[in-house]
Amino acid sequence: MITPIDFGKLFLNNWFYEKDAAACAAMLPEDSLFVMPEGMEHFLSREGAAAWIQEKLEDKSSRKYVEISTMKSNPCGEDAVAVSYEAGLIPADAGDSTGIRCSMIVRGREEDAKICFFQMSDNTADPRTLTGRVRDLLGPVKTGVMLLECREDAFVMLYANGFFTDKLKYSREEFETMAGHNPFFFVMQGEDKKFARTLKECAAEGRDISIRTVLAGAYGQRMSCQVTGVVREGRQDAGQGRLCLLLFQDVSGYQTIIEQFDSQLHIRQELLKSLPGCSVVLQRSEQETKLIYMSPEASDMFGMNAAALGEELKKDLLYGLEMTDITRKRIEEEFIEARAEDPDCGMFRIERPDGTSLWTELFISSRERGREAGTVYLFYLDRDRQRREMEKQLEATEMISKIRREQAREDVETARKQAEEMVEEAKEKTRKLLESSREELDRRMEVSVRNAEQRETELRKEYKAYKAETTRKLAVMEKALREARLQLREKEKEFEDTLAAREQAFEEKIGALEEKLAQGREEQTQRRQELETGLIRAAQRARMKEKADAVRAASLEELELVPGLAPADAEKVRENMARDYEHMTEIEPDSLSSGIFLIQDAVRNIMLYQSPRCTKRGIGLVMQAGKNYPREVRGDRPRLQSALSSLLDFAVDNTPEEGRIVLTYTSDWPSRGRVNMRFRLRFDARAFSEAELQDPGRVRGNPVREGLLVALEDIRRMGGSLQITEASRESSEITVWVSMAVPERTDPAQENRKKKR
Question: Which pLDDT does position 530 carry in this prediction?
Fold first, then answer.
């Protein structure tokens, strides 16, 4: 398998070492681009590229070995990888080497790989930091570009191009110092707080940014700017906020350029060409309307040829723009018939003849001045195109950040492998040291045995010489031997006792280690279950959010309200239902909320959501109230409704057509300010047992079982219990007990009687 990095190395060696122009050309597609220090070359055929490469190779005939020092790769598309190298070119005569930096884009994999872009420059000492890459990417942009990181409490500026220092006349050091304390210090006082607040709201909601504001320069000058931008997610695991890419476009220059339009026609056209977007100039009189100038971009923007577009604009200055009659009348009165101070008319959609459309920002300036003929200037800014360009730039910036993370992972993996190799090397050295120690010990033992044998021979000779003396002392020796044997038995007993004590201590240590291992496994299983439960609860919140959106989107006729509900209250009931489901998405797993609510309203709102589904399937859905239940209780209403909603979802999904579902709620008598509420759900289907819901991994991926698991946890969190019974072969019953507080209510009439007394 050959990777894009290895493919790039092969190309460099064919260029500098093998000096094979044909092999280099074979690694290129039909369309390739070369950027060299001396210029840029674009080739549309391999033959042209091969001839040009051959000239380059003949200019530098000596072969040079390519030594790679650093390399990086970056996926930049579905089938393209950007690869960069820093290398040294070492000649065969071992002379001075040359440092180069190469970048290329490789498309395809394995034998289909081709190099469509190749860039080479001299290597420098400047590091390729993230800011440097962003500067290379966004520096040439003529408008103001700023990259921000939006955190919870503040904005941090990551990069800003030279637009701000050039236009606002701040020095680079002054701008960076002041932006470090406040990234928006250059926004005019009075507008800065509004600007920061609007930007923070857009970043928090993840929506596109469009703000009109005024910038203040270093010497008091003012500049009106249109600020647009996009927002992308940051690295949450690293504690980073969202990335915001902002474009600052100077719109104050429109009025200055319009003042110059009264000069010669060719000067006006040059000025119009310098403006961004599309420009149209019309001269109006009572007899006719003449087209003075139209930008080449107008045909692409309106989707028709210039001649036809000019004729339509002569008839209607606002041709092709989707707007109401009131807006059209306002623009004609304020911007065309009169001269408005601010030429910005707002954002409109252009409807093209082919059915497509785009968003444009319209600027109009009318130049009447009491003359017979007046001039009207129309300016269109393609906002869709600007947004796409900003998104591409932000994606490129995010890709650069991803490369750095991948490089860091590769460095960590390399360090890990090196550590493993060092451990293996230490093990090998230890093994060799043990082997040499054993050999030395065997040699010394052999020498000791030989010395012992020699000593034994000498002792035998001495024994024969002193045999008589030995016989005389035999009795004494036997007595000493008996005493020695007694001492040996005592020593053996002590050794056996010590050995038994050590074995017992060793077994106790093994038991402790096994106990710790079992405890660690239980903790690991618990953490895994907590993670699975967290994922399941997140999915449950998303489903509750979908239910809230579905309730608001449904018409009143789709909701079958309970009998006795007035039609005037239908809209209020629907809003209460949506609000209840939104509150269910805000449930905190480890904390309980407390509030006073009506039991009847809480149960009715979740029953109404299921009513359309049951009606379509012919299922009878009934809510019954017991004889004894308090009107109001205090407790965690969203958690109780979430649990009952999940149980109802299970009942509706498993009840066959023409079946019946009955939800009954009742309670015992209140005691000491609390009451035990009982909710009984009977339906025509088989229910799961409580034991089947203990392992979150078994219910993962099944929304119904996930909802039952979350309901079981919520009921337990509220101090309640859940019981699943099989009422008959064709019906099941789920009973929920929850203890809640009964709020104290004071009778106003009783209070008045107490005051009179």
Answer: 62
What is the pLDDT at residue 755?
Answer: 47
Task: Judge whether 591 and 600 are in contact, CB under 8 Å.
Answer: no
Say how far residue 475 (Cα) sits from the centre of its chain: 96
Q: How many Cβ atoms from other residues are within 10 Å of residue 148's Cβ?
A: 23
Whether the CB-CB separation of 123 and 136 falls below 8 Å is answered with no
Could you tell me which of 404, 346, 419, 332 has the C-alpha nearest to residue 379? 346
pLDDT of residue 515: 84
Map tokens 């959010």 to a residue.
545
DSSP type of residue 236: T
Tell me if 560 sits within 8 A of 612, measured CB to CB: yes
The strand pairing partners of 721, in sequence order, are 737
| DSSP label of 624 | E
Give the tens place of pLDDT for each residue, 177-196.
888 888 888 888 878 788 88
Alpha carbon distance 293, 310 (integer Å): 9
Asked if residue 723 lies in contact with residue 735, where contact means CB atoms within 8 angstroms, the answer is: yes
Instruction: Give yes or no for residue 124 having a pLDDT over 70.
Output: no
Please state the φ and ψ torsions of residue 624, each to the nearest 5 degrees: -125, 135
pLDDT of residue 136: 54
Q: What is the pTM of this model?
A: 0.34
In single-letter form, the type of residue at position 503 comes to: E
Contact assessment for residue 626 and residue 584, using Cβ atoms and an 8 Å cutoff: no
DSSP helix/strand/coil, 658:
coil
Cβ atoms of 589 and 651 closer than 8 Å: no
User: Which tens digit of pLDDT belongs to each residue from 253-271?
Assistant: 544 444 444 444 444 455 5
DSSP sequence for 327-354 = HHHHHIIIIISS--SS-EEEEEEEEPTT
478 token code pair? 């036997």
Residues in a beta bridge with 344: 363
